[in-house]
Amino acid sequence: MRLRLPHLLCVVSVCVIACGCGDNTVAAPTRDADFDGVADAFDRCADQAETKNKVFDLDGCPDDVADLYAPVRTDIEAYWTTSFPALYGRPYSPIGRMQLFTDITDSPCGEGEGPFYCSLDAGVYLETGFMTRQITTIGAFAGAIVIAHEIAHHTQNLRGVFNPAFDIQAELQADCLAGAWGATVSARGLLGPGDFQEAARLMFEIRDPFGLPWFAPDAHGTAAQRYEAFSKGFRSGPRGCD
Fold this sequence. Notes:
disordered N terminus; three-stranded mixed β-sheet; 39% helix
């Protein structure tokens, strides 16, 4: 994810007037030895570049794919904690859990694979192989949008409109709500060139297979439908998703 976060690079001017230096100043040097945008004074790994997740984890160290999950969840839920009451007139309750698994897992809603939301425990379940592929082949913003989509199902559940049969309209609305959160990331200046395109590519990658009817129980939408839904939320915010 090519994300940008502004850094205030402090220039310290020192003038020892008592010693008669007059207007002379000395600028403290600011070094960034690994050229990752994090000054060495604040860089926990000054000889290794920050990677992947420069929005929510800017410690200057290389990131593991899993480093994305918790801070993205925190940011998305902070957004809904503020927005949900204003939009729907009721408080937002956080998801019950975010569980990582490999291949297939059990949940109170039954056996599941791939990323999914379970309304019975308000849990978001992320299959690590799927998430790693999206993050490493497309980018970290793509992975963040997957999480935003699943948490969007939680907001639907809180409103009483979540369909556990994975109705296609619920899926497209979740794409739209994920786009609404993505717009707030952009508004904070945290998206870099190409990040919106990551989301567009994700919609193509996770589209329904050709030939799957729209009324199929596991239908999520064509690439065009999913991209349009995400874009609508990005442009119009959550009110545009109803």
